[in-house]
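WARN retry 2 of 3 for item q-0093 after timeout on previous attempt; input resubmitted unchanged.
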Amino acid sequence: MQYCSDKDMNQLVKRMVRIGWIFEHGKLRHPAGIGCVTFPRTPSDHRTLLNFRRDIRRLEASLPGAVAHGFASAQLTPPPAS
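OK item q-0093 returned
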């Protein structure tokens, strides 16, 4: 499934969905059901990916400790180049 026209954003959203985040109409909902992050289907700003990562970090920082740990922290960094 294609979530976003930007390939890097699309890959990040796919990884987030794979680890349990819930996608619904341009939003990613946290697996614990607390909070969501929106993202554009057709981003026009070159900083969109950076802003999206920042929003995810802020969402997880605002959650209680046990809920926040381990969901997105490892997914925010790009995979190593082969």
